[in-house]
Amino acid sequence: QVQLVESGGGLVQTGGSLRLSCTASGFSLDDYAIGWFRQTPGKAEREGVSCMSSNRVTAYYMESVKGRFTISRHNGNNTMILQMNSLKPEDTALYYCGVGVRTYSTGEQCIIDGMYRWGRGTMVTVSS
């Protein structure tokens, strides 16, 4: 079955850390650009938090998470990771992983063109 499954969300206090994982099955992450997106209550669209090119050369980050979040991919176990440190209440959102053909930055967020699959999301709640 072709799918992406996220894990690692939860409730954390301000300043804490979480590590989100997204494991692919039925296809190889090697062939795709990868990304993490989030959707906050009241917003209709998902924002591109961090994305990485398929060749790992380029990684993009939303301005508000630079220096705090790190995206990585672990091709050996077909998994992508978002390490989130120094979390803030404004990071509270439903986080999704996604893969597609290519990625680029608008200056405000990253975009994945030719989206192939989305995960179902994992909730991150940061308490003040």
Secondary-structure blueprint:
Layout: E1 3-7, E2 10-13, E3 18-25, E4 33-39, E5 47-52, E6 59-61, E7 69-74, E8 79-84, E9 93-100, E10 102-105, E11 110-113, E12 117-118, E13 122-127
Parallel strand pairs: 2-13
Antiparallel strand pairs: 1-3, 3-8, 4-5, 4-9, 5-6, 7-8, 9-12, 9-13, 10-11
How would you describe what is shown here?
- This protein is mainly β and 128 residues long.
- The protein is built from no helices and 13 strands.
- Strands 2, 4, 5, 6, 9, 12 and 13 form a 7-stranded mixed sheet that branches.
- The radius of gyration is 13 Å and the shape is globular.
Q: Tell me the total number of β-strands.
A: 13
Specify the overall morphology.
globular
Low-confidence stretches: none
Q: How far apart are the first and last residues' alpha carbons, in Å?
A: 39 Å
Give the class from helix and strand content and strand pairing: mainly beta
What do the pLDDT scores average to?
96
Number of helices: 0
Largest sheet: 7 strands, mixed
H/E element sequence: EEEEEEEEEEEEE
β-strand amount: over 45%
Rg to the nearest angstrom?
13 Å
How much helix is in the residues? under 10%
